[in-house]
Amino acid sequence: MSPSVSLKKLYLGALRFAAARNMPRLAALLMLPQLKTLKPANADDPRTVMVLIKEGFTADVLAALADADGLKVVSLPRVIVKALAAPYLPYFIDDNNYISAGAEFDDAKLRYRRFWLALIETLSRVMRIDGMISGNYSYATERELASAMTERGLPFIALHKENLKTPGRVEFFERIYRERRGPFSGRKILVYNQIERDLQIRAGVAEGSRIAIVGMPRLDRMHQWRLAHVGEKQPNRVLFFVFSPATGMPRLTRKAETRGEVWFEDDDTSDGDISLAKLSAATCKALLRVAKDNPDIEVVVKSKGRARDLNETAKLFGFDSEAQLPSNMRVVHGGDILDLIAEASVVCGFNSTALLEAIAAGKPVVMPWFAEVEAPEVWPFLVDLRSVAVAPQSPEKLAEELIRLAREPERVPEVLEPESRKALALWTGNDDGIASSRTREAIMRELKL
């Protein structure tokens, strides 16, 4: 075990000890060194907002608040919140059973909320806390934090980043929201699109006055990149956003009662049969073939960077480790995707907002459309971008299109086609490149700035 891993375990253990012993002053003392400034303020009397950092969401927040001179943005690592929740909430209580787990856990939730009330009071003596922003209204370990902020009269804002809801997922998540996640106890929810807003209102998450559509802030930079690079083209590079058999399907990742173990819960109507296993396997095989047969073309594979991705991505291509991949094929785990999209000739993936980011950047998108995609029971769960993307109907055609677009790259357009703008408006609420300003204005209103 490396020294850094040992120190992290020791630190998180100290946080859990402080929470278990109801010692908010110790918890505050431990937290303060980890609260990093993401954006300083440029004002005499600035407000401070804490952001519960998470990939994608953090980029949204920073895009929205970059020009907020009167606002200081401080990061609050979610791992700290999880450590503080551990002594109060059983491990198996998660986002998707928070209110349905049983009334026997209500007392523990209340004690956790009271701990946060005392902790916020303690922190407020040494720093300003004018609000908090999270990436989802329903993260289990943050539910009582949201309630505590509300009790103190401070805004807890959810910039809800999970908005890619197809008709099947809308029906699926309406039940999950209503029966398992329950109402939002914070101040305001900001969503990308009308689909998510309507879903949350119907499910009783919050009344319409507390849910605003702002669009996807981090998409602004893709529009800006496109306008700054009109006419350019990038040869011989394929960017593949790798996807799993469960991507977009009616399946929930759940925590087992044994810490560290997870299991998948399927939709009650699917009998576990709805999967993209064949599509995922055939697509990975096609990408590997592109790399092996075309040494002049670089294939960049992008994962989400989760712990399991580090161990499993190479296996999707039939290898035990990434070192065994062809020399012109590399894997990138997590991180910012702007440069990856900018340097790509063509982007490939499935059921992902990354494809919409590529469209906003003016890059051609190729989307596999074979295997399970042909099954009617899968159709309600597919993000259908065939009006704006190439959709090969076999692995062989997929490889051909990727090779063609890599060797004959398209120039970056100044103006997007009407169908591209229509797709961006529907899924991201951002076909105009100014979602950041809408988000900033919504946040500043809640902070009374």
Features:
single chain; 449 residues; alpha/beta; Rossmann fold; 2 domains; 7-stranded mixed beta sheet; 5-stranded parallel beta sheet; 40% helix; globular
Give an overview of the whole structure.
Helix content is 40%, strand content 13%. By secondary structure, the protein is α/β, with parallel strands linked by helices. The chain has two domains: 3-216 and 434-446, Rossmann fold, CATH 3.40.50; 222-428, Glycogen Phosphorylase B (Rossmann fold, 3-Layer(aba) Sandwich), CATH 3.40.50. The strands form three sheets. Strands 1-3-2-4-5-6-7 form a seven-stranded mixed sheet, sandwiched between helices. A five-stranded parallel sheet has the order 12-11-8-13-14. α7 links the parallel β5 and β6 (188-191). It is globular and about 60 Å long. The N and C termini lie far apart (47 Å).
Query: Given the C-alpha coordinates, what overall shape results?
Result: globular
Q: Could you give a short account of the major beta sheet? A: 7 strands, mixed
* Radius of gyration from the alpha-carbon trace, in angstroms: 23 Å
**CATH fold annotation of the largest domain:** Rossmann fold
Number of strands: 14
Helix content: 40-55%
Class by helix and strand content? alpha/beta
Give the neighbour order of strands across the main sheet. 1-3-2-4-5-6-7
